[in-house]
Amino acid sequence: MYDESRHLARQDGPPADPDPMETAEWRDALLSMLETNGPERVRQILDMLTDTAANAAVGWRPPRNTPYVNTIAVQVQPPFPGDLAIEERLAALMRWNALAMVVRANLAHGELGGHIASYASAADLFEVGFNHFFRGGPAGQADLVFCQPHSAPGVYARAFLEGRLEEADLAHYRQEITARARGARGLSSYPHPWLMPDFWQFPTGSMGIGPINAIYQARFMRYLAHRGLLDTTGRKVWGIFGDGEMDEPESMSALTLAAREGLDNLVWVVNCNLQRLDGPVRGNGRIVDELESLFAGAGWNVIKLLWGSDWDGLFARDTGGALRRAFSQTVDGQLQTFAAKDGRFNRDHFFGQDPQLVRLAQGLTDEEIDRLRRGGHDLVKIHAAYHAAARSTGRPTVILAQTKKGYGMGEAGQGKMTTHQQKKLDRDALIAFRDRFSLPLSDEQAESLAFLHPGADSAEIRYLHARRGELGGPVPARSPQAAPVPVPALERYAGFALQAGGKEMSTTMAFVRLLSSLLKDKRLGPRVVPIVADEARTFGMAALFRQIGIYSSAGQRYEPEDIGSVLSYREALDGQILEEGISEAGAISSWTAAATSYAVHGTAMLPFYIYYSMFGFQRVGDLIWAAADQRARGFLLGATAGRTTLGGEGLQHQDGASLVTAAGVPNCRAYDPAFASEVAVIVDHGMRAMLERQQDVFYYLTLVNENVPQPSLPPEAHEGVIKGLYRHGAHGQGEPAVRLVGSGAILREAIAAGELLAADWDIASEAWSATSYAELARDAREVERWNRLHPDQPARRSHVEQCLAGGAPVVAASDYVRAWPSLIAPHCPARMTVLGTDGFGRSDTRSALRQFFEVDRFHIVLAALHALADAGACPRELCAQALARYPIRTDPRPSWEA
């Protein structure tokens, strides 16, 4: 006997009905109303009853989950508009070419990886979209499509049939370097716009990044429309994601925002193949039920796509509801087993569990039972779900499509625990796959993994091009062309910073003032997108509330408490600020949407996202890396930056490492400016690089909230600011004995140290501002490489070598970990001593913190004297005298390690 308890979910059944006759009368009355007045009237009555039942005395709420059947009933399915036979043949061709691409690469090289089973489960979900829904065309008109990363081979297979890729390209899947040497185009492992800039729109390889970015892209489309910058009517954001991916917090973190904003331009298709990499997603439960509850609770329109057309007749004959009961009680782990087994097993173990099910299956052969399709493998059912989703209004839609992982791979992988790792198939498995999808291949062609193309004049290829032509062009496709945006002259918006003349302000205040001026520029101003997660008032941005407003799709339906204030809170439909609440992941996703608008929408925008620096690269570094992959253009501002500038806050807020992390992102330009003038020069340079020269870079600047006198900046120093190092000044008489290099907040300590060296020790020094160790190291590496590869040419000198030439020791002090200044240590001509703020932060005053981390002026003086003594340039006794003279602790261990 089959043990039913092995696959039944534990459920407490409903309590016994005390009056079945009364219950039947209620049901019959409802059905009579449906027949007489239609579904709209039934919904009205049910809504009224729900409100009544929600009374505390009753305490009833409707269940979140609906029966485990398709949401789109068979009687309301729209007619399938395409040629079903041709589309099935096309899908089969793409399945084969995707499989051949991965298996070929691994047979030849053994270690390249790739995935077969994911696309095998999602192929039909993609194909219905490509043939009927995903609109192409130029940026600003096309839909946005986020592709499940493990299904990339299938997208390449379609591009091959479309003529966008050659057979040689497919043969170099995951061989990008080798392909270039052979004159072919290598295909990246997953969707990577950086590596395939005219093909992929969005990177999705890091699970959870695609879903949250899709939501904020859909919201940014509305933002552009409401601000009158772009007509986005009719465009959709489509995302095909995995059910296991929904466990990532980023996947779920913005669901309520999508519903709150009424983003009916957003459709997710969650491929519920019920398996993660190593086994079931919810082996002891049902992921479809869980996701339905989550999405419905968040306010989404949920469409369940579970069973194919083959099941329609069975459901129609199942008057007793046995099928519904069986499905409602079968957990995903058992559904996976059913997927992996043949028709005989399913007859015995699924249909065999109930006499009513046995009778339903009597007219089916074992082969027919084996071919009963789940909804995600039925083109007709998929089209019906997509059709409904595309026409849904007022809220986003998610389609929960049930599939089989490794669909069609049979014994080689369908539904098996190991299917995700399956990258090679033997001869019998390849021939079985060929037979399963009726592919026109001989045994020898199947075994040799020959790519299939039916010919440019075949009915299949003509149909393929006709469908894409009607939808506007190929998808995915990226068009990085956008009209340049002119940047106003630096003096027009930042003269106050360049000629500060000792005026006291923080670099945060200077940035906000600079931003306010940019917003007033008639051409650039409308393209500026200020973004904050929260703390706009902390950063001094409250004045912008009235000036440009905070974007809200609902406008402002209330009278703010501070309406009489000049800094009152103002939300507006055409507001310009994106204030995302306490969600760094949401804010960086908004920034990414704006920073890629030039390619996604053909409209260049300039986003400035300002945040606590500790909550940037450390907290959402993966999202920033994905933005880099997308060739984002914009500014990230790490405010209240550094380990010692945020007095009183302590360990969780004091940032000492973000610049090092930023330096590791290839197209990020990381700067640590000390003064308002440096901020202005860097922002101006960045805007011209991104908006006028259209370079695919973005900028990270640290900002501090410490009010200090701001010096003016001479024009001849501007180039050094951008390159990363310039001479700020000198102290003492004669040639400098030591060079003191400071960055950010610690530059002023280096300057003060120079004054102490001159006054107390009669030692001359130079003070240098290191605005970017990352840029200095980048330049030095390039020069070093050029010299290595051109031994017959005169050697070049890096900016570091030119600035710090000679033997004078260098002391570099930073408010960041020592690894930040150490980026230039291998390229510094003289001995270099590095002071930094390694360790955890502490709560105290700025001066106490700088003394604690040994980066204050006294420790810089001591480091300079020690370096000079080591070089034989001063008596070592001066070090001991300095220890006695200055407030320097001599604990046996560094205090930050205690």
TrEMBL record:
Disordered: region residues: 1-22
This enzyme's EC code(s): 1.2.4.1
Binding site residues for Mg(2+): D243, N273, Q275
Broad EC category: oxidoreductase
Reaction(s) catalysed by this chain's protein: N(6)-[(R)-lipoyl]-L-lysyl-[protein] + pyruvate + H(+) = N(6)-[(R)-S(8)-acetyldihydrolipoyl]-L-lysyl-[protein] + CO2
Cofactor(s) listed in the protein's UniProt record: Mg(2+); thiamine diphosphate
UniProt-listed PANTHER family: PYRUVATE DEHYDROGENASE E1 COMPONENT
Function: Component of the pyruvate dehydrogenase (PDH) complex, that catalyzes the overall conversion of pyruvate to acetyl-CoA and CO(2).
Protein name: Pyruvate dehydrogenase E1 component
Provenance organism: Pigmentiphaga kullae
